[in-house]
Each structure stands twice: as structure tokens, then as C-alpha cells.
Amino acid sequence: MSFINISSITPEHGGIYSCHARNEIGAISHSARLSVIGSPYIHPMDNVTVVTGDEVNVDCAVSGHPLRNVRWRKDNTLLTGGQRVADHRNGTLSIAQAAKDDQGWYHCEVTGNQGEKAVGSVFVRVVERPVINPFIFGDELKEGMRAMVVCTVLAGESPINILWLKDSVPLLHSEHRDGIHVTNLGEFASSLTIPSVSRYHAGNYTCLVASGAAQTSYTAVMTVK
């Protein structure tokens, strides 16, 4: 059994409290809101990072009671519901299919029944998903031939990390594993070279690119005749 005790309660203690329990069979949770009569208060919110094209929801953690309304603004623009960037009027801000223009400061404004106000802010950073230039090995490879492909990152924010995998197993840049050579060509490109192809080299080769909170990959199949 577990419990929470608040010995001297204030409006700042208001909010949603959750209890989570887990064992080898499964997990369960229960949440309940604690409303404390007093002026509105907004708990600090962590800044958010979202990848272009993804969706993000931000909850304004409000306490105090009673409350008249909770609204979101971007800069000086009051947001409404039913839009791609929407204020759901329940403290939740949602951004669907995030775009670079959505980046910026968002402000949650809470008004109490007596007209008291509280404002909390969160910065939403939108990072661009990396774009890989497609590559192929071709379908005429025979044993003893040479093969080389280059993974080039056309878009994405620095710093960029590139990792090669063969059949989901990483190929490290410092290794010349089984005749497979991986070489960095600067920050935005990496080559994979096989000086003498054998049937062993057939398989799926994946270039995995990570850029901040975003990542993407491209896979090409090598077939050896």
C-alpha cells in the first residue's frame, strides 16, 4: 500500500494525482483531481520538442478553484478549437502535423471566478525530420565485383549522426567488418564499400540518420548472383 499526505495544503497542491501499480502479470493506474479553493496557479511546464509532421499535446497544469476559463495564446494570438493548432478549452494545446512555423512561445492563461489571472509559458521547438537521398546497389552484382553506396543527408538539423546496419546489426565506422568498409564523408554523408563482393554480403543495408529528436532510415537490398 502507498499513500500521499499533504500536511498544509495550498492552491499550488491542486492538480491531477496518479497512482501506478505493476507486477509480473500486468499494470494498473488510477487518477483523481485535487481541487483546492484559492487563486489560479500554473505549475511550471517543460519545453517541448516535436518533429515536423508529428503531433504533440501540451497540458497546462492548472490548480486553484473555482476557475472561469483556461486559454492558450501563441505570441499575442488567441488560439481556438477545430484548427491544426488548437486550444481545446480544457487546458490542452494540440499541434497536428507540426511545421516549422509552429515553433515559438505558447502561453497558458487562467482566470479565476474573481478575475484573478495566472500565466504560464512553454517553448515548442520544431525540428526537421532528416531526409536521405535514396541509394541502390543495382541488380547486376556478382561475386568478386566491387560495390559502393553513399548515404547522403539532404536535410536535417546539426549535429547529424549516421549509422549503417546490415540485417539490423550495426556496422561501426572504426571496423572493416567482414570486408565491409564504412567511411565518414563529413557530417552529412557516409559511404559503405565492399572491395570484393561475396554471397555472404547479400542482405539488407540500412542507413540510419539521427538529428536531435528526429531520426529516419533508408534500406537497400543487395543481391549477389
TrEMBL record:
Gene Ontology biological process terms in this record: cell development
Ranges where the Ig-like domain occurs: 1-35, 40-120, 130-223
Keyword Disulfide bond appears in the UniProt entry: yes
UniProtKB keywords: Disulfide bond, Immunoglobulin domain
Keyword Magnesium part of the UniProt annotation: no
SMART domains: IG (SM00409), IGc2 (SM00408)
InterPro entries named among the record's database cross-references: Ig-like_dom (IPR007110), Ig-like_dom_sf (IPR036179), Ig-like_fold (IPR013783), Ig_I-set (IPR013098), Ig_sub (IPR003599), Ig_sub2 (IPR003598)
Xref: Pfam families: I-set, Ig_3
Name used for this protein in its record: Down syndrome cell adhesion molecule-like protein Dscam2
